[in-house]
Structures are given as structure tokens and as C-alpha cells.
Amino acid sequence: MLKPILILEDDPSAQARIHNILKTFGYLDDDLFFSQTIEKAKQIHEQNTIGLFLVDLNLPDGCGIEFIQSLRQRHEQNVPVMVLSAWNSIETIYKALTVGARGYVLKERDDVEVMFAIRTMLKGEAIIDPGIAKEILKKLHLTQRRAEISADANIQANLSSRELEILNFIASGFSSREISEKIHISRFTVDVHIKKVYQKLQVNSRTKAVHLAKQIGLLS
């Protein structure tokens, strides 16, 4: 077991709940330090080698994220920190994880779920509340999609009107000679435009150019 454990939590009822949960793991009172403020938590930490931190965020003298950040600034990168908080905004969660928390669980979870989270931390693994993980994945997907849309828009902006015209002819199955006859330019010039289309789409064949162009909306 990781011990001692420092619990940074200002709500007495939440402290009692955590105390009872930790007792089920076999922890004794001497293994647990409770603090209602960041300042006191820092004092306890200076006087003891802590094995695990359970940290709330909304505290009388500041945000628990500041405390986690202070731990990491002291080069204690390997000490596990789990946030147990009612705050569920994605921005707050990201910040807590970014500064060094390895777990984030919502207080609204029942005791069995909190026990599972703590057990996971005790095994040296990371844990993120399932509801939070779902929101994070949604945000990541949205960010990725926005990046894809931006990249697609850049490709469309980079293709000239002539290149788009020739790309449409390629999609319709016309050869370079047939395209040259339709738009009244030399076959050599058509081939130059096709090579530029390949370069901008980062492909090396007509089939791949058409397939990608359809995927990103350049062709219907």
C-alpha cells in the first residue's frame, strides 16, 4: 500500500467518507493526514514523505490545482495525485491533468466507484471518471474534425480554378489528350496541371487523386 496518504479536503462530511473508504483498504488513522487548506497540506508534506495525495479543488485558500502544481515544481513527478472534486468542467479537468494529476474522479460517484478509482491509483495506474473521459473524447474528436476541415479548406484554396477544372475531367475519366482538346490547351500543359494537383493532394495517381478529392468535398 502507498502510505501515508494526504487528503486535501475542507468538507468534514467528505473527509469522513474518504476516511471510511480508506479504512476498507486496511489503512489506519496513523496512515492518513487530513488538511482543510493548501497551506496546511504543504506543511504536512514538508514534514512527511507522502505516498498518495487525494486532492479537492475548491478550497478556502485557493485551488487544489495550485497545490498539485507546487508538488510537480518540487520535482516530485512520481508521487501519484488523484483529484476528487465536484468540478466537472473540461477546462478545469485538462488543467489538473496537465499540471500533474494522474486521476480525476467526481464526488458524485458512489463509494464503490470511488473505491475502484483509489484501488487503480494504488496499483500505479491512472484513472479518469468515465463521464469525464467521454466528454474529453468528444472534445478531442471535435478538435480533430476542425483540424481536418481546416486542412481540407487549405487544399481547396491551394488548388487553382484550372486545376479544379482538370480534376473534374479526371474524375469523369477523360485522358490528358481529351482534356487538352476540351479546354484548348496543350497536352503537355494538362500534364503539368495534373502533376501540380498530385503534389497539392499528396498523391501519386489519378485514382488516388479522385478518391481523396471526393473524401474532402472537392468532388461531389
Largest sheet: 6 strands, parallel
> Can you count the beta strands?
8
Query: Which strand order do you get reading across the main beta sheet?
Result: 2-1-3-6-7-8
Number of domains: 2
The CATH architecture assignment of the largest domain turns out to be 3-Layer(aba) Sandwich
Q: What is the CATH superfamily of the largest domain?
A: Response regulator
Helix content: 55-70%
SS field, number of helical segments: 10
Uncertain segments are none
What's the helix-strand series?
A: EHEHEEEHEHEHEHHHHH
- Rg measurement, Å: 29 Å
What structural class should be given to the helix and strand makeup?
alpha/beta
**CATH top-level class of the largest domain:** Alpha Beta
- Average pLDDT for all residues: 88
What is the 3D shape?
Answer: rod-shaped
Descriptive account of the structure:
The protein is α/β, with parallel strands linked by helices and 220 residues long. The chain folds into 2 domains: 5-132, Response regulator (Rossmann fold, 3-Layer(aba) Sandwich), CATH 3.40.50; 146-215, Arc Repressor Mutant, subunit A (Orthogonal Bundle), CATH 1.10.10. It is 58% helix and 12% strand. It has 10 helices and 8 strands. The strands form 2 sheets. The chain has a 6-stranded parallel β-sheet with strand order 2-1-3-6-7-8, with helices on both faces. Helix 7 (161-171) packs across helix 9 (187-201) and helix 8 (176-183) packs across helix 9 (187-201). The longest helix is centred in the middle third of the chain and has 29 residues, at 130-158. The protein is rod-shaped.
